[in-house]
């Protein structure tokens, strides 16, 4: 466990750079100044209705050993809460139910009353599969398909412990840990309507919290933009390892800084409304998915963080991020843009073709 954490910290130092911290501050400051009226200018009933689709009941499918490992690495229950947030005591974490195999999990999904002791029975809002390849890979995708039949559009997140397992668990992921566009097309042709995202466990228990918030932000963006003009950052990254490391850090900053921006004069109810109207993160793994966010929410996107190479027009494009950034800069000239790449030579391309764009080397 300690060795894995050391390797992860060495590899992901770029995420803790001042550029990233300043970027988040810039996004949040812009958001805070423009959205100060959110707490006072909107109907209270509308604010209370923000983020209606929250993860309240979560099913974790894993072996007892893997559940123990999650606890050993940092505490699964702690990972469900708002770390370092003064509002953590007022926001109830999701109720967690555990299944040790896919058969029990399916029974719980099809009949939620079998999962809860109380009379307050509600369907699951999220399923996280943390399964070892040798135990479950033969029936994992049959399980996902059956979940989609029993509970259409129920998000199923796949959580692997290493890259080899990730590639085996999710056929969309290739040898470089990227969501491969050709493999994704084949997947979607056979499994239409299934919502499944891969993630990579790297010893940081706050990943669970980030996974939940990523799902909630996607589910609630349209509703919250209409109700309270809530804003978002678009994150474009097809490397599962990188977004699994980046999301916990950026969410932690957003929750901490949002809490700090809320005036001490506001009472708890107003602070909670402000937290619900916080900046959202919209994760995209392709050029088209990112464009869809900008086209769907043209007045609500306040920043772009993008990789350089990712799928575009049905194939992997090493310069897709430049195409996206040029489009965004032309259409939204004031939006802050950060380009990330593991290839240092891309910095000159970014600086030559774009103005006022921050470049970050992922391996610095």
From TrEMBL:
Highest taxon listed in the record's lineage: Eukaryota
- Gene3D superfamilies, per the entry: 3.40.50.2300
The entry's protein name is Uncharacterized protein
Q: Specify the taxonomic lineage.
A: Eukaryota, Amoebozoa, Discosea, Flabellinia, Dactylopodida
């Amino acid at each position: 466990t300690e060795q894995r954490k050391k390797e992860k910290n060495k590899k992901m130092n770029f995420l803790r750079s001042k550029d990233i911290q300043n970027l988040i501050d810039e996004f949040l400051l812009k958001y805070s100044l423009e959205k100060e009226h959110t707490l006072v200018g909107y109907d209270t009933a509308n604010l209370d209705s923000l983020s209606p689709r929250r993860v309240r009941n979560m099913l974790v499918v894993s072996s007892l050993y893997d559940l123990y490992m999650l606890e050993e690495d940092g505490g699964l229950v702690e990972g469900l809460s708002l770390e370092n947030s003064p509002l953590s005591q007022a926001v109830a974490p999701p109720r967690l139910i555990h299944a040790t195999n896919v058969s029990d999990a399916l029974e719980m999904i099809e009949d939620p009353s079998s999962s809860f002791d109380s009379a307050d029975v509600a369907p699951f809002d999220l399923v996280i599969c943390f399964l070892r390849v040798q135990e479950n890979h033969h029936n994992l995708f049959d399980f996902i398909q059956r979940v989609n039949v029993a509970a259409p559009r129920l998000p199923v997140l796949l959580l692997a412990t290493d890259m080899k397992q990730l590639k085996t668990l999710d056929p969309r992921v290739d040898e470089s840990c990227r969501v491969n566009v050709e493999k994704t097309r084949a997947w979607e042709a056979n499994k239409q309507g299934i919502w499944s995202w891969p993630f990579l466990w790297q010893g940081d228990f706050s990943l669970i919290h980030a996974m939940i918030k990523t799902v909630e932000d996607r589910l609630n963006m349209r509703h919250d933009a209409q109700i309270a003009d809530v804003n978002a950052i678009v994150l474009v990254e097809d490397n599962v390892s990188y977004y699994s490391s980046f999301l916990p850090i950026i969410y932690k900053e957003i929750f901490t800084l949002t809490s700090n921006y809320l005036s001490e004069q506001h009472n708890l109810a107003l602070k909670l409304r402000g937290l619900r109207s916080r900046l959202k993160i919209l994760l995209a793994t392709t050029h088209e998915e990112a464009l869809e966010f900008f086209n769907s929410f043209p007045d609500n996107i306040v920043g772009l963080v993008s990789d350089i190479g990712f799928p575009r027009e049905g194939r992997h494009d090493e310069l897709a991020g430049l195409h996206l950034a040029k489009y965004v800069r032309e259409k939204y000239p004031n939006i802050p843009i950060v380009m990330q790449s593991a290839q240092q030579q891309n910095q000159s391309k970014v600086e030559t073709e774009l103005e006022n764009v921050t470049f970050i080397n992922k391996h610095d």
